[in-house]
Each structure stands twice: as C-alpha cells, then as structure tokens.
Write a structure and sequence with these properties.
Layout (H helix, E strand, L loop, with lengths): L4 E3 L5 E3 H19 L21 E11 L2 E11 L6 E11 L4 E13 L6 E11 L4 E8 L17 E8 L3 E14 L5 E14 L5 E15 L2 E10 L13 E9 L4
Antiparallel strand pairs: 1-2, 3-4, 3-14, 4-5, 5-6, 6-7, 7-10, 8-9, 10-11, 11-12, 12-13, 13-14
Length: 261
C-alpha cells in the first residue's frame, strides 16, 4: 500500500502520512512563536509581535538599536494550556532617549485568533513599558531680543541667560494587531514572516503624544527548542531629546522554549 496505517488511541485507522502532516503542523506551531513570543514592550525595542501562541514558557536574550537608543534585555513569555492568550515581560538597559544609560522594563498581553495548524494567522496585543525619567537642562545666552529670551532680557537687548528643561518619556504603550505566515521545512525547522502595525503612545515626559508605527519580523526555528528572530520598526518619529523613536528601530533575539515539544 502507498500509505501504511496504524491504530490510534481512538480506535480508528489513521494513515501514517496524515499523522506525519499533523505532527509537522504541531511542530511548526511551536517554532513559529519561539523567538518573537518572548518579546515584551521595552522602550527602544521594536514592537515585534507574531500572530500565534503555543502553550508553554519561552525565554530570550535581545538587542535593539536605531531610532535614538540602544537596548540590551532579557525577556520571557508564558501561554496557558488553552493557548488563547500570551503574557510577555522583560527588563534590561537602554542607552539613548536623551542621553545616559538607565533601566527599562515592559509587559505585553497578546490574543491570537485562528487555528493552531493554519498557515496564516492574526491577533491583537497591548503593552506598557518604561523606565526612570531623565531631565536634560540646556542653558542659552541671550544677546538679542528674541521670543525665547523675552521673559528675561531687559529692554534694549542687554544679554541674559535662560535655561530650558527637557524630560524624556517614561511610559510606552503600544496597541495593535499582528498578521503572519509560516511554513515548515521538515523536522523541527520552519520560518514565519509577520507584520505588527500599532499605535504607540509615549507619555510621562515634557511632551506626550502618539505615533503610528509598523514592525516587520521574521522568526526562524533552528531546532525544536531554539529560535532566532529579527525585525525592524518604521513609522512616525519624535525628537530624541523628549524620548521616542527618531527613525528606524531594529531588533535581534535568540530564544529557548522550555519543556518537551
């Protein structure tokens, strides 16, 4: 026979070929989320969110840069057995957003929609992250009558001094959606491409406001429990002095999935 059969636990004959396809899809469902699933909402990191969630715990190490900041962080994710919700968290150090190094932290909740074995998926997510505030003072010597110096420059244009304070943001809140495609290459290897557009609110500093940003990512499962993710985020910008991305942000991470898969 072309397809040998075996007797499964339900007492029905199931073609081994079909069972192999089902197991391949299950493995793919794991490796497609191994890397990005540990991504949390950390200031300075792209908002990478894949469209699937597989029950279990994943940990990762991440580096991000561009947009006025550099970030080094560790993150984790947990998905309960029913697989309809994913909680991610992380912490690290960021350099930028007004100068100097400081701690950063973040959490995110994602809800995937679609079948566990589907090749195309989508979901929604929201998060919050931040770090200690940082205030930068700039002193300007006013030698002429200018609008910025009018409050302290005497009539006649005699020189004066004025100091401007600028506080970087301490809170980042993204709300968005994700859509992804995945493909198995046999065994424990697979690939997933995804996009995650989001509205990102930056608050807690001198100037608060929101931006539309979109991230594009790729997940690669290199082994049953190991994954690599990479991606970029583009969209609206904010001045670096008040916090927020001033351009394209990129990220790279390596992750490990605990437990047998």
């Amino acid at each position: 026979m072309l397809y040998d059969t075996s007797f499964d636990h339900a007492g029905a004959d199931v073609p081994r070929f079909d069972r192999g396809v089902l197991w391949a899809l299950r493995i793919l469902a794991v490796i497609a989320v191994i890397a990005a699933s540990a991504n949390a909402q950390l200031p300075g990191a792209p908002v990478l969110q894949n469209a699937w969630a597989t029950p279990g715990t994943v940990a990762s190490l991440n580096v991000a840069g561009g947009g006025g900041a550099t970030l080094y962080a560790a993150a984790f994710s947990w998905t309960p057995g029913f697989g309809s919700m994913q909680v991610s968290g992380g912490a690290g150090f960021t350099n930028g957003f007004g100068g100097g190094s400081r701690g950063a932290y973040g959490v995110r909740i994602a809800a995937p929609f679609g079948g566990a074995s589907s090749l195309v998926g989508f979901g929604v997510f929201a998060g919050i992250g931040g770090g200690p505030a940082r205030t930068t003072s700039t002193t300007v010597s006013c030698t002429v009558v200018l609008p910025s110096c009018a409050v302290i420059t005497p009539i006649g244009g005699r020189s004066g001094i004025i100091t401007f304070d600028s506080t970087t943001n301490t809170t980042v809140i993204p709300i968005g959606a994700s859509v992804g495609w995945r493909q198995s290459f046999g065994g424990s290897r697979g690939l997933s491409l995804f996009a995650s557009p989001a509205f990102v609110y930056y608050g807690g500093g001198t100037t608060s406001g929101g931006l539309m940003r979109v991230a594009f990512g790729i997940d690669a499962g290199v082994a049953a429990n190991i994954g690599i993710t990479g991606g970029i985020e583009v969209g609206g910008t904010r001045p670096q002095a008040i916090g927020g991305p001033s351009g394209t942000v990129y990220g790279l991470g390596a992750s490990y999935s605990f437990g047998a898969r």
